[in-house]
Design a protein that fits this description.
With 181 residues, the chain is of the alpha+beta class. The chain is 17% helix and 27% strand. Strands 1-2-7-4-5-8 form a six-stranded antiparallel β-sheet, with helices on one face.
Length: 181
């Protein structure tokens, strides 16, 4: 009986030993809109494709799939339901985790358009990103390239943080509390 309260029912620990994960903090000027950057890629190519569950937390993430450093796919997800993904070798994924309102402020995509995952051809703002990044080489250390891109977008849109943005860092942290993301 005690075991029921230690592990969530139906959630099994995934073997992530062949997955390399790296996180980066955005430029301080982008903090009101971007929570973090992260990249994932397979360490070895001999491991079979694994499917991972992604549990919903209400946040929004832009993921770029890279093959040999070039953008080959782009997906914008707002996680409101359980999804599954795999990490196909030899692709690397670069992801941008937005704060509430960040997608609208930096990309002009309203929350109403995020009911389903969006690809590069599903929204004009993502089409523009795809056109800018198509064939562009992203080195493994590419968080700085993302910073430059979003700093230019923020300046061009003359974005100012909304009243709630400075307060997001003051919400109480609790192991079971995922915030309003």
């Amino acid at each position: 009986m005690d075991q029921l309260f230690r592990e969530p029912i139906g959630i099994r620990q995934a073997d992530l030993s062949d997955l390399h994960f790296r996180m980066g903090i955005p430029h301080p000027w982008l903090k009101p809109w971007i929570e973090l950057y992260y990249s994932t890629h397979r360490v070895t190519g001999s491991i079979e494709d694994k499917v991972f569950n992604l549990y919903p937390d209400g946040g929004t993430t832009l993921s770029l799939s890279l093959l040999h450093g070039e953008v080959v796919d782009m997906r914008l997800n707002s996680s409101h339901q359980l999804r599954q993904t795999n990490v196909p070798d030899p692709r690397q994924r670069l992801s941008v985790r937005f704060r509430p309102g960040g997608v609208f402020a930096l990309l002009g995509i309203p929350a109403d358009d995020l009911e389903y995952p969006l690809g590069a051809r599903d929204h004009p703002a993502l089409q523009e990103l795809s056109d800018q990044w198509n064939g562009r080489f992203f080195p493994m250390q590419s968080f700085a390239a993302l910073d430059r891109f979003f700093l230019i977008r923020a300046k061009a849109a003359e974005q100012q943080p909304a009243i709630i943005q400075p307060w997001l860092d003051h919400f109480p942290e609790h192991p079971g509390y995922s915030g309003i993301y």
